[in-house]
Amino acid sequence: VEDSARIFKEKLANCGLGAEHTKHLDIIALDLGGLMTRWMIEKEGCDDGRIHQVVLLGVPNQGSMWSALQQNSGTLIKNWAFGSLSLILNNLTSIPIGQQFPLKDKN
Questions:
Q1: Whole-angstrom Cα distance, residue 36 to residue 32?
Q2: End-to-end Cα spacing for the chain
Q3: Among positive and negative, which fits the CA dihedral 43, 46, 33, 35?
Q4: Which of 3, 22, 68, 84 is the most exposed place for a label (fewest CB within 10 A)?
Q5: Taking the C-alpha atoms of 60, 44, 71 and 59 in order, what is their torsion angle to the nearest 10 degrees?
Q6: Which residue intervals of the chain are DSSP H helices?
Q7: Which of 62, 49, 54, 46 is nearest to 8 (CA)?
Q8: What is the largest CA-CA distance in the chain?
Q9: Interior CA angle at 47 toward 32 and 57, to 5°?
Q10: Across the 107 residues of the chain, what is the mean pLDDT of every consecutive 10-residue run?
Q11: Is 37 exposed, middle or buried (0-12, 13-18, 19+ CB in 10 A)?
């Protein structure tokens, strides 16, 4: 994110959108691009008015539960995957709910 933000700032400056430009610049950012844009504005010194408006869509500003789950619970994910695969391979996912099974004949 940090490297991408620095490169983005440099690309903007190369296009004439440096700190002294007078154009109206709005940024619409999605997902990781939003994190990069925030980093550029907050950490790379682009909070000087060169960007007029930012719209963030689907940006994990509070972090992602999936990355935390992968880092802290690798065993849990492996167990879930193994259990799911076991159900699928044994064809246990195709049992209809509420189906009545015939009772064993006593004769």
A1: 6
A2: 73
A3: positive
A4: 22
A5: 10
A6: 2-14, 32-43, 65-72, 74-89
A7: 46
A8: 94
A9: 30
A10: 90 85 87 89 80 86 66 68 76 60 60
A11: buried
Overall pTM > 0.90: no
Q: Do residues 29 and 55 lie in contact, with contact meaning Cβ atoms separated by under 8 Å?
A: yes
CA gap 95, 24 in Å, rounded: 60
84: amino acid identity, one letter: S
Distances (CA, A) of 93 to 51, 85, 86, 88: 52, 10, 10, 6
Query: Which two three-digit tokens encode residue 83?
Result: 């259990």
